[in-house]
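Most newcomers find our protein records easier to grasp once they have seen one. Read left to right, the backbone structure tokens trace the chain's path through space. Nothing more is needed to start thinking about how sequence determines fold. An example says more than a description, so a record of this kind follows:
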Amino acid sequence: MTFAVIAEGLRKRFGETPAVEGFDLTVPEGGVCGLLGPNGAGKTTVVRMLTTLLRPDGGRASVAGHDVVRQAAQVRSHIGLVGQNAAVDEVLGARQNLVMFGRLSHLGRARSRSRADELLERFGLAETGDKPVKQFSGGMRRRLDLAVSMILAPPVLFLDEPTAGLDPRGRGEVWEAVRALVATGRTALLTTQYLEEADQLADQIAIMDTGKVIAEGTPRELKSALGGDRVEVVVHDAADLQAATGVLERATGAKVTLDADTRRVSAPVREKAAALAELARELETTGLAVEDIGVRRPTLDEVFLHLTGPEDSRKEVAA
């Protein structure tokens, strides 16, 4: 397997404050790696080191086969970066921005224009004409940011919270643009505060806390490591919660979790079809009134909170 990004023991301090301590990560070529973590975990510092904007204090890293310290120029020629804030000129139109960045990247006048036309078409911005960027929606701006990062068609993209502040429609537009890029064989390292975004886009997820990776795997692996499927019952009346707990215990033979606020009881199951069938029989026998019954897997939000919660509540998850 060939890796687009390799980091081993990366460290960075700001004064006496450690920002990144022993960060390790390998990202295979192709697909999306989601880098998650609470505020202050060190995600943006890692991205800045991997994109040569910040020199590590220790450890080593390579991107597209080039060392980020010794071969910084080669790294920069093989990457695209979309930061948390739009980097385009709001007075200019989309095509003018792309031509300008093409010229700044030494493509030449004719090639800059043809590349701008290619990218406008790819990112659904061909109909914007000379409309200034300040009149664009949030999703359109971020798609233009992605287009700018692709001026030189780099094999590796760094997306640092690319949908921060966007509404659901804008996020959806950016997701589609990222999927289209990855479909061409490129690799993306994505940091995000939206757990749903990582679940939708990432093939691989690394969860950071206190400057290092504390869990890694596919979204499915991380969810499974937290406990697998759970069967749930929502009762019509909160007074029936204790009765529902007994029904669920008999049907599953497992420890039941009760949530009075949502009138919900749940328990882990191994054979979900058999557990559902047994639960349905028990509910019919008792005549208990329920609003909903079903099976669900743990969410990525639950995995995240489980791993990055208060120190005394954290547990190891091996994926």
